Amino acid sequence: METIAAERKASKLATKELTYFLYGGEEMVLRKREIENAVISDPTYDITKYHYLTREELFEQAVKKSVHSITKLMPELDILGVFERHSLTSVIGGENPLSLHTDMFMPTITGQGSDEQQEKWLPLATNYKIIGCYAQTEMGHGTYVRGLETTATYDPVKQEFDIHSPTLTSIKWWPGTLGVNATHAIVPARLITKGEDKGIHNFIVQLRSLDNHTAMKGITIGDIGPKFGYAEMDNGFLKFEHVRIPRDNLLMRFSQVLPDGTYVRPKTSSKLSYGTMVLIRAGLSKFSFEMLSRALTIAIRYSIVRRQTQNRPGEAETQLLDYVNQQHTLITLLATVFGIYFVSQDTIQLYVKTQSQLNEENMELLPELHASSSGVKAISTNLASQGIETCRIACGGHGYSLSSGFPFLYQSTTPSMTYEGDNNVLLLQTARYLIKIRKEVQEDPSYSPPDNVNYLTEAVRPRNINFRSPQHQLALYQCMVRACVDRAATKVSQGEKIGLDYFDAWNAAAVELIQCAEAHTHYVMVKSFIENIDKEEVRNMSPYNQFILKCLSDIFSLNYILNKSGLFIEAGAIYGRELNEIREVIQSQILEVRPAAVSLVDAFDYPDFVLRSVLGRKDGDVYTAMWEWVQHNPRNKHKNGVHPVYKKYTRKLLRAKM
Ligand SMILES: CC/C=C\C/C=C\C/C=C\C/C=C\CCCCC(=O)SCCNC(=O)CCNC(=O)[C@H](O)C(C)(C)COP(=O)(O)OP(=O)(O)OC[C@H]1O[C@@H](n2cnc3c(N)ncnc32)[C@H](O)[C@@H]1OP(=O)(O)O
Ligand SMILES: Cc1cc2nc3c(=O)[nH]c(=O)nc-3n(C[C@H](O)[C@H](O)[C@H](O)COP(=O)(O)OP(=O)(O)OC[C@H]3O[C@@H](n4cnc5c(N)ncnc54)[C@H](O)[C@@H]3O)c2cc1C
Q: Which position among 420, 443, 512, 537 bears the catalytic label?
């Protein structure tokens, strides 16, 4: 306890200033804390026994908490907007089994429903007269949305759609909130009218009775069973047997079916019906920041408190964070989490900007948003999932206990590499965009590409390189990414030249394509970090905070260069002989950050309640917390301290003659 207090005292970081910066100002932080305190002081959200609950208990508690939040806490705290709602969900912790209602069902209606449809459905949804989910994925198809098999066949006589699951593989499988709770779903299905298949469109379908919650006629529905994690979420299955819905349950903002069955195609892009996926992808980098920053808070605090090995006679054992390997592991991750933070802010801004253009039927930014949000979602969820596991390992044996908080963080984060688009698949979408822009640049010298891909027109290694210079770092990335894009494009075109069809040529280059998308996205993240810490808000910070952010930026940028040095050397961006200098700059910046490490994670401002970790306690009283935790273990609570398995099994073994 004294050690962590001493660390805080010695740190020169203006912690409060950084917290305000991260959350968008003092007012936002005060509001966040108001929400946290309301949750912490309400017994409904008690977490004392959380880690010992069974799957069914976890689910029931989570639904109870969610309903309590909607009916009591949210009105009391006047929570309306998406950010405050997420803030509340985040402090309550665990999964929110009703989250898909507000995160996907409602945004799909807002984004894709006509004005009349919004007027009809949104008040019902806002007031929880109905509970919605987003039922897109089927047993046979998740990635390949165009391959979904559920049909919606228009009947002009009754002016209804007939929703049907024609095959076993067409059964909807995975959607959250579907298994138990939802009364309605957004159902992407193949629209068939006048005998023609018009592709995937979104429909609103009622699943359960609003009187007694039983399944509607023609609907078979349930929960898909235990998963890797996500016990609190009712991921479900859904089978349709010719279910009838009115014509105007087709979401008709972009395309329509007229009463006689005439199809009116979207004026602009058919991909607008994928809009909800783009929204969540943009939000997932923020989610990655939250999950990884919690893991780092736990690992860094623990690494201050934990001592291991007396290295000099008569002195205290060494703090884990004073081992250079531990510093390297955790402080490079600290730099990463700030990288994710800045790019998540930029991605959300790009989403908002694109959305306002789309409202004016201007599609200009859509390809960039799709490519960028796909890449950023993939890289930030990869980094967060791997980073949480790294934090666990950095905490030794105690990291493996549920009480460390890591298992929950990992289980909640790792599926984000799959849902909302598998990460490899999304990186291939980013690559598709890069290859397309490269082609345009080559074919039309007057074409000026978007800022983030400008390196495709020019990328030059600076002379007299200074690895501490952000502009030089960016130039090195530009050379490297350009070479990666060239390599992938060349591989595709070589395949085509030897007679492969488009798919085979593309598939043969898949590894290079994913590599170029990854490299590009890392470049975008480094650029975003560098640009954001050059903004006025940061320039107004205390000099020491600016200095630490610059150190973290260098670490983030240079550590990737070191880890992927093969790519940079192959591109002629750096020479092998320069690697030592890069190592030294990283090492010296890590040493600069070390004294501020605990204040940096304090700046994330997570109360103990949110971390749910005996290792990550703010006061550092780790060992007392471990002892308290074990007192709740039901396995220790049997008469005379003797567990029933003794009578059932081990006693026989101990007395058996063998
Ligand atoms: C408010 C909430 C905010 C934040 C929330 C934050 C945190 C949330 C925390 C936790 C979340 C909790 C639970 C999440 C639950 C998860 C829910 C789901 O998983 S829903 C299901 C998601 N499914 C997918 O993502 C499927 C992935 N597949 C696809 O997206 C597509 O099929 C594909 C892979 C992109 C391919 O599509 P398609 O085959 O149709 O397209 P092509 O490859 O042929 O490309 C054609 C052309 O279209 C362009 N394009 C493709 N997609 C888009 C798009 N979305 N937008 C714009 N343009 C798109 C593509 O680039 C091509 O363009 P071209 O090159 O031809 O110009
Ligand atoms: C916890 C969780 C919650 C979910 N919630 C929802 C929800 O609310 N609503 C909903 O509709 N869905 C939901 N899903 C489903 C999720 O969106 C899909 O699982 C996801 O999009 C991946 O699709 P898939 O399962 O078909 O994977 P697949 O496409 O089968 O992918 C398997 C592997 O094949 C590779 N692969 C596939 N296609 C290609 C390709 N074209 N090129 C190269 N490689 C390829 C992938 O990289 C991956 O490694 C959820 C899933 C999970 C795990």
A: 420
